[in-house]
Amino acid sequence: MSENILGTEKIHKLFIKFCLPAVASMVIAGMQGMIDGIFVGNFTGELGLASVNIAQPFMQLIYGCTFVVCIGAISSMGRLLGEGNEGEAQDVFRTSMITVLVATLVLTLVGTFFSKQVAAVLGANEEIISGVSTYIKTISLFAPFIALKVLFGFTDRIIGRPEEYLKATIVSVVVQIILNVIFLKFLGLGIGGAALATGISNIAGFFVVLPYILNKKNKINLFKGKFNSKIIWPVCYNGSSEGVTSISTAVATFLFNMAFMEIAGPAGVAAFTAITYMANFGILLMFGISDGVTPIISYNFGDDNKKRVRESMKLSIISTFIIGLVIFLILVVFSTPLVKMFTSTNIEVINLASSGAKIYAFAFLINGFNIVTSGYFTAIGNAKASIIVSGSRGLVFIVVGIFVLPMFLGVNGIWFTVPFAEIVTVFIGMYILKKH
Q: What 8-state DSSP symbol labels residue 362?
């Protein structure tokens, strides 16, 4: 990555150059889960859609382990390059690659040999445990490729190629759509076919981001650096807020599934699945902004240029608020036709999801601030503050809300849980920022 560009080019130009590919990459990558939902919902029905959602916490575990290492590594490498310490930055990359490989290989073994046990723990009943188990077993085989695609793609940003990860995600989605049509529509492979399509599509994306990591001329590449076990903890701790986000998502999904299963049965889980697919699209836009601005913030923080750091934060907060406002309006006005993308025949699911979307939508008016704040603290190496913000919005107040609000509001209380958690976290984030 060019020091002159990050240190001297106007922030709004850097913001566009780095954030647009990051946003597009995040959204397209997020579409992979949505594509599974669309194909499974339309070709296997309500139970298939519920099965895929029950399995999502395992997917979040894969991504959680991946992002803990990758985000921590990118933040560290950015600051080190800003300080002019290229050798140590290369050591961070080598150590992070080995660490994430070991972690995902362990998950592959767990998913392969204990898929039914994992499905049962995640709340699958006799109706759907077979489908959930199949999805977990299949997708676990591809966990190392998923992790390396993310690490290599994010590292491409550090060496000045932010568009490479975007190319990888585009290739992944195109391959996934083609394979879903073949596996589900023509071959009738069901849930296992959807997982297989997702896994193979990630391998395709991996080969897109690989070439620049193999180029010995780049500051960060596969052939330089050495493994240093002392680096593992600082990297993982610095990226731990991203892990908290993924783990929180997994726990929250589990709790929501249990709550909806108890109140509304599989139809409730299917309705929640449809809403989360739509909501994740907006959230991924915001995380794209946060991820895209991370190299800019971390580099300039390492270079002690605080004015440019503040400019980057201001642009990020304004951008995510505008995105949130648009998503809010879309969910309120177009909830019913959006839900029908996932299930067009079950009136109970359509009505439940459509009314829930209008409540859930309020979270988007404020969650951009929380996402950017957490990402900012990760970028500057303040992992504790980042964990507090991400844990508050994604876990602590989700647990509080989901156990308390339904007691007074019934099923609407479940839908209100996410807006409640985001509102409380805004005040926490503002306090920490002011103190910082």
A: G
Q: What is the DSSP letter of 364?
A: G
* Structural domain count, the chain: 1
Q: For residues 41 and 35, what is the distance between their CA atoms, to the nearest angstrom?
A: 10
Question: Is the distance from CB of 312 to CB of 293 less than 8 angstroms?
Answer: yes
The pLDDT of residue 2 is above 50: no
For 132-163, write each residue's pLDDT tens digit: 899 999 999 999 999 999 999 888 877 777 78
Helix, strand or coil, per DSSP, at residue 214:
coil
H/E stretch holding 218 reads none
Question: Who contacts 50 (Cβ-Cβ below 8 Å, separation ≥6)?
Answer: 128, 266, 269, 270, 273
Q: Which domain holds residue 99?
A: 3-435
Residue in the structure block whose two tokens are 């023509």: 186
pLDDT digits (tens, 9 = 90+) for 9-26: 888 888 888 888 888 877
CA distances for 114 relative to 82, 138, 141, 299, 366, angstroms: 44, 12, 13, 43, 39
Report the distance separating Cα 294 and Cα 288, nearest Å. 10
Query: If you search the block for the tokens 């560290």, which residue do you land on?
Result: 76
Reading phi first (left if > 0) and then psi (alpha if -120 to 50, else beta), residue 226 is in beta
* Helix extents (H) in 215-366: 229-238, 240-302, 306-339, 347-360
**Residue (of 87, 22, 81) closest to 300 by Cα position:** 81
- Interatomic CA distance for residues 234 and 240, integer angstroms: 10
Supply φ then ψ for residue 219, to 5 degrees.
Answer: -60, -35
pTM across the whole model: 0.71
In the chain, the largest separation of any two C-alpha atoms, in whole Å, equals 62
User: What's the confidence (pLDDT) of residue 265?
Assistant: 67
- What's the rounded Cα separation, in Å, for the pair 31 and 37? 10
